[in-house]
Amino acid sequence: MDILPLCLLIVSCCLLVWYLVERNRRKTRPMPEGLNTDRVIPTEQPWELYHNNLSLCSKKIRVCLAELKIPYKAHHIDLIETGSYQNISREFLKVNPAALVPVLIHNGHPIYESHAQLQYAAEHSATPAALVPADPDKKRLMEYWVTKGSLIGDDPLAALEASAGNTIPGLTLPLFGTMIERIPVKNILEGLLFHRLKERPLGFLLFKLVGAQRFHHIPPIRKAIQQSRDALNIHLDELEAVLAQSEGPWITGKQFTLADVGMMVIFERLLEADWIKEFLTERRPQIGRYWASLQTRPSYQSAIAEFDHPTISRGLDRLQTIKRHYPAFNQAITADPAC
Ligand SMILES: N[C@@H](CCC(=O)N[C@@H](CS)C(=O)NCC(=O)O)C(=O)O
Question: Dihedral angle at the C-alpha atoms of 301, 310, 81, 73, nearest 10 degrees?
Answer without folding.
Answer: -50
